[in-house]
């Protein structure tokens, strides 16, 4: 064996990424859990104890499913990394508080077992497990998943109860109070009722350097831009009031999805250019679903479709690795 071969045999090359960091999976997931506390508390304030039970059932089903799967398959137990807790929290925050308790349980099993563990566990799933489970529940139990209770608006509202979501109101030609939409509680899924609480969690993640603002900001901005463009093309310029635009940003789970789901490490692109393209794609899909589709939301579907396209975005936008040989052109020229 030559000297070069002997030296090469002693080199161990692990899979990417090769950038070292002091951050651990558990620490990152703990930060995400802390960031999700403000929208969770707002949802419980808005909908009462039942919202808390839905969140507990979603988290418990995710953790228990991962634990039992790893025990049965004799794999190392990884529930201590808190990734299953984050999946359960995100799933629960994307559910109405009125769903039967078997809905978060079924969603948790689907998210962990089908989307996460069957594809190899944490880091191997090709789409966000919580949103994949939500879309599965939306398709399977549409009526249950789109029935929202009345929410009590605690600060500014003169009419205390409402059952309609902001996007449903403006879709039917109604108006919303912009101040209430920005600073008060509005109707929807458990996690989307308070813009202020979502932004508090978002700022926490930025301060902790868990995420960057690129994907959330570009996603929200491109959604608004495409909605405006499509309405102008359709001759509906009169709809583009401040009330309409604020509802598009603050309603339908856009901020919740942009701040906590679109920038998931595993299912988002690796380069800055790729992240920008991905975010614009999410904005395009969300606006199409909202303007032309029968649903007034579309965030969950947009993100999981975007997740499926991420490998192609990475292939196009990632720079060529150092040391890769150029392919020879036909005719022998390098």
Structural summary, described in words:
By secondary structure, this protein is an all-alpha fold. It has one domain: Ammonium transporter fold. The chain is built from 15 helices and 2 strands. It has helices at residues 3-9, 25-47, 49-72, 83-93, 102-116, 129-140, 142-145, 166-171, 178-183, 195-207, 214-233, 242-250, 254-260, 272-292, 299-317, and strands spanning 151-152, 161-162. Strands 1-2 form a two-stranded antiparallel ribbon. A hairpin with an 8-residue loop joins β1 (151-152) and β2. α3 packs parallel to α5 (102-116), α4 (83-93) packs across α5 and α5 (102-116) packs across α6. The longest helix has 24 residues, at 49-72. The radius of gyration is 22 Å and the shape is globular. It starts with a helix and ends in a 17-residue tail after the last helix. Mean pLDDT is 85; it is low at 154-161.
The biggest beta sheet reads:
2 strands, antiparallel
Query: Regions with pLDDT < 50 over 5+ consecutive residues?
Result: 154-161
Number of helices in the DSSP assignment: 15
Note the run of SSEs as H and E.
Answer: HHHHHHHEEHHHHHHHH
Inertia-based shape: globular
- Main sheet: strand order: 1-2
- Helical residue percent? 55-70%
CATH-derived architecture: Orthogonal Bundle
Q: What top-tier CATH class fits best?
A: Mainly Alpha
> On the 0-100 scale, what is the average pLDDT?
85
Structural class: mainly alpha
Counting structural domains, the number is 1
Beta-strand content bin: under 5%
Radius of gyration: 22 Å
Tally of DSSP β-strands: 2
Distance between the termini: 32 Å
Oligomer: single chain
Q: Kindly report the CATH topology.
A: Ammonium transporter fold
